[in-house]
Each structure stands twice: as C-alpha cells, then as structure tokens.
C-alpha cells in the first residue's frame, strides 16, 4: 500500500519571504489560499501582467507586493519558499531548477514531480487549524474532507482551546506530569 510520507508543518508566513511567479488564474488561486490562512503573509507576486482580481486582492493586503516584470533569477534572493504557476512550463521548470540550486523549497502548480511541498486543504476554527493532504493525488478529496471537518468541529472549539491553555498555565510539576494531566483532561475529545 502506498503511504503519504509528507511532513506537515505550519509556517509563520509573516516571518518568511514568499515568491509567487505568475499573475493569472492559478496565481490568484495560490495567493488567495495563502492569504486565507495567513492574511499577513509576506508575499511578492511577479508577472508581466496580472488579473484584475489578483490586483484587487493584493491591494487589500499591505504585506503583498506586485512586481510587473518577467521572472528573473535574482528575484529568488532572500526567499524562503517559491510557487511557480505561469502558463509556460519552460519558465516553471527554470524556476524549479534555480530553486534547487539555492536550496529553496518550491511548488510548481499542477506538476507534482516538481513540488517540494503541496498546498493542501485547510480547516480553521479560531486557534484550531487542520491541514489535509492527499499526497498530491486528489485535491477534490482534500476539499471534501475540509468541508466535512468544517461541519463537525464545533464553533466553540476556540473557547475550549483558550480554557485548556489557561488550565495548562496553572499546572505544577515536571513536563511529564503536565502532559499526563493534559492528556487526562482532554481524553473526552476522542468521544
């Protein structure tokens, strides 16, 4: 049986520098996805032209910069992660190859072999965030699972998380004892 070996991680995109290469429909989708989860993400989008909707979206976020130019390798300087989503496979492949040389993580839209990471489905309720991955096999399945979790996770989950955080601050003892007590009190979540 094939297994998903991806390592999930939650990035503080306001502390990182993200480059998106492409200003069309897929660029709009990728930027929207990033900003939905991380509204203060530090993103530069590079393209000779942009969809008006992408310009509007970027205009609502001061941390997003639009650069009206073709991609150039110097644009990779001081980046942490890159997304290439132009309609030109040669440009996308060039971005990927340059990222590999610079040890940058890169996602080439709709090209799983040229992806170091995928942008999966995300469910957010207050401080609770769940990421869903299908290992790049079925974004539609990730979408349906996201919809399912959005329905079943209670709206007051954020209040519970806040209460548990306050309780955790009052615990005495060593790390193991605190973990034991937190496990005990959260056991009912499984039911």
Task: Kindly describe this structure.
- The chain has 191 residues and is of the alpha/beta class.
- Strands 3-2-1-4-5 form a five-stranded parallel sheet, sandwiched between helices.
- Helix 1 packs parallel to helix 2.
- The longest helix has 14 residues.
- The protein is elongated, with a radius of gyration of 20 Å.
- The mean pLDDT is 92.
Give a brief rundown of this model.
The chain is α/β, with parallel strands linked by helices and 191 residues long. It has helices at 25-37, 52-59, 89-102, 139-152, 157-170, 175-186, and strands spanning 18-21, 43-47, 64-68, 81-84, 105-108, 121-125, 128-132. A five-stranded parallel beta sheet has the order 3-2-1-4-5, sandwiched between helices.
């Amino acid at each position: 049986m094939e297994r998903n070996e991806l390592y999930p991680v939650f990035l503080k995109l306001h502390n990182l520098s993200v480059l998106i290469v492409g200003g069309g429909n897929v660029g709009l989708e990728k930027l929207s996805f990033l900003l939905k989860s991380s509204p203060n993400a530090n993103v530069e989008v590079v393209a000779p032209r942009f969809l008006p909707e992408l310009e509007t979206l970027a205009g609502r976020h001061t941390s997003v910069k639009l650069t009206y130019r073709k991609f150039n390798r110097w644009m990779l300087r001081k980046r942490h992660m890159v997304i290439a989503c132009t309609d030109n496979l040669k440009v996308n492949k060039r971005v990927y190859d340059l990222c590999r040389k610079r040890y940058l993580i890169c996602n080439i839209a709709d090209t799983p072999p040229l992806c170091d990471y995928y942008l999966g489905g995300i469910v957010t309720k207050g401080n609770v965030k769940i990421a869903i991955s299908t290992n790049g096999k079925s974004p539609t399945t990730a979408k349906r699972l996201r919809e399912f979790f959005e329905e079943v996770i209670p709206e007051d989950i954020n209040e519970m998380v806040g209460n548990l955080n306050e309780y955790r601050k009052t615990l005495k003892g060593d790390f193991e004892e605190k973990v034991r007590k937190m496990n005990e009190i959260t056991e009912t979540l499984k039911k």
